[in-house]
Write a structure and sequence with these properties.
Blueprint lengths: L5 H13 L3 H8 L3 H8 L7 H11 L3 H4 L5 H11 L11 H7 L1 H30 L1 H24 L7 H29 L12 H11 L5 H4 L5 H8 L3 H20 L2 H10 L4 H8 L3 H7 L13 E6 L4 E5 L17 H4 L8 E6 L7 E10 L11 E9 L9 E2 L23 H4 L1
Parallel strand pairs: 3-6
Antiparallel strand pairs: 1-2, 1-5, 3-4, 4-5
């Protein structure tokens, strides 16, 4: 087994640090100084006994000279370089990792922390933009403020107001101020609520979602079959309805992993450009299995981010994995124009839809959806349908006109939508 060109750089740097001459080191290992010079300038690949002899002559472990020890560090340095674009000297990353491994480690650590902070900012942005509870709380605050302002404007007007009407206006201001105080306290309590599902009261689905999010919706123990779904549920710490929901999700995950092992599936996904139809034909499995399996691709290996939503025939969400720009309320009230719901009216027919979110910087999402029976058919019994929707942000091709979708009617700015079920919050942006 040979090593890469990083080995020669390490040998040279270590020799110089020790103050040794090329001729002395070459004599110790039984080669010519000119050959050692070629090695140190990465023009000869070495391995085996010669690498061991050089490590012994320099007083270091063989692993220090081999490239494997810092391969991950180099990958992380190159990823960190993307933060500043063309200004980074990517070609000198190997030299930095060799000469200053401590500083290189600090750079990668800071890059990871920046990535985490950036993800938190995106999550908070999505929360501010799409959370229906937050929108309701803000609406209550704004309504109370507007009522107080309107009543106060009447009281300070130049017109004469009799004592009885003044008393009524004062009572209204008092009542509205109490309502404003309660709404503000509720809003602050909601925003300050801990993210940890075990520390805040949530629905069972919310607790399951928090557990899956902590694991990036990828469960390696089920991938390699080193743990059963029951063991995963036990390790999660969830109980009651949340444990039952997670058990069903884990069982489906394990069944899909047995049908489509991750190594072969990840390679095929890249080759098929993440096209569910091509992957279904390649592996000979149903379309819904592919839609469930694609979002399980591990992060950090070059795969694009993907979201997944699953609902039953009532439209209630049973599973949700977010993606950049893709959010749906877990507690109902989602936009009915998503292909997830449209597929329920066309069972077993795959849908491919380019969806456009509202706003000035409207994001386009490529959506694949299908509704399939979730149980065995019986005579004279309607099938139990389950709908799946895979979402790929920023992978649209512009081959068809995008379908306008929203998140929730309450916060959707489209005034002419024929599917609107309730009025939007009017003037929210102006009031804020």
């Amino acid at each position: 087994m040979t090593t890469t060109r990083l080995t020669g750089t390490r040998i040279r740097e270590k020799r110089l640090d020790l103050g040794l001459r090329q001729a002395a080191v070459a004599e110790l290992v039984g080669i010519s100084p000119s050959y050692l010079n070629l090695i140190e300038h990465n023009r000869r690949r070495i391995g085996g006994k010669l690498l061991s002899d050089l490590a012994r002559a320099l007083g270091v472990d063989k692993a220090f000279l081999a490239d494997g020890a810092d391969r991950d560090l180099l990958d992380q340095l190159r990823a960190a370089a993307s933060l500043i674009g063309d200004k980074a000297e990517i070609a000198r990353a190997e030299d930095l990792a060799t000469r200053f491994p401590g500083w290189a480690g600090l750079i990668t650590l800071q890059a990871r922390r920046l990535a985490v902070m950036d993800e938190r900012v995106r999550a908070l942005t999505d929360r501010m933009a799409h959370d229906p509870f937050l929108a309701t709380a803000l609406h209550d605050v704004i309504s109370a403020v507007t009522a107080i302002r309107s009543t106060a404007a009447i009281l300070v007007s130049q017109e004469q107001i009799d004592a009885d009407w003044q008393r009524r206006f004062h009572e209204n201001i008092h009542a509205d101020s109490l309502r404003l105080g309660k709404s503000s306290e509720a809003l602050v309590a909601y925003l300050d609520a801990p993210d940890d599902a075990s520390q805040s009261p949530e629905t069972p689905m919310g607790q399951v979602d928090a557990f899956l999010a902590q694991n990036n919706y990828h469960l390696p123990a089920l991938e390699d079959q080193t743990a059963t779904p029951a063991k995963i549920v036990a390790q999660s710490g969830l109980t009651g309805a949340a444990a039952a929901l997670l058990a069903g999700i884990c069982q489906q995950y394990a069944d899909d992993a047995r049908k489509l092992p991750m190594d072969s599936f990840a390679d095929a996904s890249t080759q098929c450009d993440y096209d569910p139809a091509r992957l279904a034909a390649h592996f000979g499995v149903d379309f819904a299995t592919i839609l469930r399996r694609l979002p399980c691709l591990p992060q950090g290996q070059g795969h694009p981010p993907m979201g997944l939503a699953v609902c039953d025939a009532s439209g209630a969400l049973l599973y949700f994995k977010p993606a950049p720009g893709f959010a749906m309320p877990l507690t109902g009230g989602a936009c009915p124009l998503w292909p997830l719901f449209g597929a329920l009216s066309r069972p077993s027919q795959p849908l491919r839809v380019e969806a456009a979110l509202p706003g000035h910087a409207a994001r386009h999402l490529l959506c694949y959806a299908i509704a399939v029976p979730a149980a065995v058919h019986h005579f004279d019994v309607p099938p139990v349908l389950r709908s799946y929707m895979l979402v790929l942000p920023d992978m649209t091709e512009g081959s068809s006109a995008p379908v306008p979708v929203g998140v929730s009617c309450r916060i959707c700015p489209r005034p002419d939508c024929t599917s609107r079920r309730e009025p939007a919050i009017v003037g929210l942006a102006t009031a804020l």
